[in-house]
Amino acid sequence: MRDRIIVIGGGLAGSEAVYQIAKRGIDVILYEMRGIKSTPVHKTNKLAELVCSNSLKSTDIYNANGLLKEELKKLDSLILKAGEFSRIDNSISLIVDRELFSDYVTNTISKFENVKIIREEIKEIPRDEIVIVATGPLTSESLSEDIKKLVKEEYLSFFDAVAPIVDGESLNYEKLFWADRFSDEGNYLNAPLTKEEYELFVNELLKAEKVELHEFEKDIKFFEGCLPIEEMARRGIDTLRYGPMNGKGLINPKTGKRPYAVVQLRPENRDKTAFSMVGFQTQMKWSEQKRVFRLIPGLENAEFLRYGVIHRNTFIKSPKILRETLQMKNYENIFFAGQIVGVEGYLPSTAMGLIAGINAYRLIKGLKPIFPSKYTMTGALLYYITHQDIKYFQPMNANFGLFEDIPKHLKSKAKKEYIVQRARREFSKFLEEVWNM
Predict the structure, then answer these.
(1) 110: which of 5, 26, 139, 290 lies 20 to 30 Å off by Cα?
(2) Would you list the DSSP string of 197-219?
(3) What integer pLDDT is reported at residue 435 of this predicted model?
């Protein structure tokens, strides 16, 4: 094997892996096909482009995503540093300016003299080099076929849907109000609906024309955690009102009352000139999105900076294929990282890239690959994707439900406190292994 590491894919996981390897002095070749070949959802050629939400979720340490952030920070995560650099406001969620975010990652990696970025579609994974495959849920068809040969397993598949983004200047702020759920903070813009407005919206949503799927895609089920808004509506008239359009925890200051239903708009940038429609992933045709979403009070003249889209999302059967080090069981020199391994969300994907990067470095240095305890948030994700019963294996985000061996008498805050403190102790042990290389 050559004294270099190949990373395929310049998304969050791939970028994180490159950073972890490069800063340790090893040569890295990063292959990224964008610039030569695009995907259904990417808009730029920048590294670590955020194609869905611009929220990296909660920073609260007693939230699973907050705990994961603490672990990533201790490991000097590039993606987390980019998030902190491009942060829009001081809300509990880490909401970022997506342009500043990807610029930070791209510029940081481009400055490494030992990193070579090649804009090329890789169609076959080199079997005789140390490789990290971080091509994400939109892996090209050619590479997908080679991965199938490599892992000797079919992919699992589901659809992932992206929410629209609207131009802030096109909104009618007289009908909207700023508020967070159960908080005095005003980081979300809210569009309240009356019962009549809500029912009209749902009825039109159900009538709307959808984008036709390819024949080979029609048997694939949607991922439950990212259902299109119209699919939720089909489950009953009140489904949306108890889901993304729930008014719980929100009081409209103009009426002093809780809205019957509400659409939350999350700022996309620091200047709050663009807003994403929270939970409004959709398979509707673009013309139908404009027609239906403009029924929402305050959005009557909304201009769409990005329409919602739906795309195929694939991941491998990691419990059969990977070790907790993210190495293949049959090829110790080939690592997988990011959403393709069966994690869901920006930072879980980042964590997989980080671990793969550290272990690829250790392998090239003749050191034993390592992984954190399953009692840490990072380790719990690794344990899930490598030990879950394959019959029930679905993409998983960071959550406290992944943790085991918790005293049964502990409830609520005491339970979270136990999880966090145990995770911190266990992660300290892992850090000793990482830094004592």
Answers:
(1) 139
(2) HHHHHHHHHHHS-BPPPPGGGTT
(3) 85
In sequence order, the 6+-apart residues with CB closer than 8 A to the CB of 104 are 81, 82, 85, 86
CATH of the domain at 346: 3.50.50.60
Do residues 149 and 76 share a domain? yes
Q: Supply the Cα-derived Rg of the chain in whole angstroms.
A: 22
Position 147 pLDDT exceeds 90: yes
Residue owning tokens 């300290």: 428
200/282 same-domain check? yes
Nearest-angstrom CA–CA distance, 130 and 125: 10
Compute how many other C-beta atoms are within 10 angstroms of the C-beta atom of residue 296.
25
Nearest to 8 by CA among 138, 154, 121, 163: 121
Same-domain check for residues 180 and 225: yes
Which contiguous run of DSSP H or E holds residue 74?
A: helix 64-74
Q: Which among 149-153, 164-168, 213-217, 373-377 has the top mean pLDDT?
A: 373-377
- Look-up of token digits 């080090």: 325
Same domain, 247 and 307: yes
* CA separation for the pair 292, 301 (Å, rounded): 12
Q: How far is CA 125 from its chain centroid? A: 24
For residue 87, report the phi and psi dihedrals to the nearest 5 degrees: -60, 140
Please tell me the predicted confidence (pLDDT) of residue 214: 55
pLDDT in tens, 73-112: 999 999 999 999 999 988 899 999 999 999 999 999 999 9
Tens-digit pLDDT profile for residues 306-353 = 888 876 778 999 999 999 999 999 999 999 999 999 998 899 999 999
Ramachandran angles phi, psi of 188, nearest 5°: -115, 140
- Decide the pairing of beta strands 274-277 and 165-167: antiparallel
E-state strands within 98-253: 115-118, 130-133, 156-162, 165-167, 177-178, 189-193
Dihedral of CA atoms 375, 381, 384, 385 in degrees, nearest 10, equals -150
82 and 128 share one domain = yes
Residue with more model confidence, 316 or 155: 316
- The residue segments making up the domain with residue 279 are 162-312
Claim to verify: residue 41 and residue 65 sit in the same structural domain: yes
User: What's the number of domains the chain is made of?
Assistant: 2
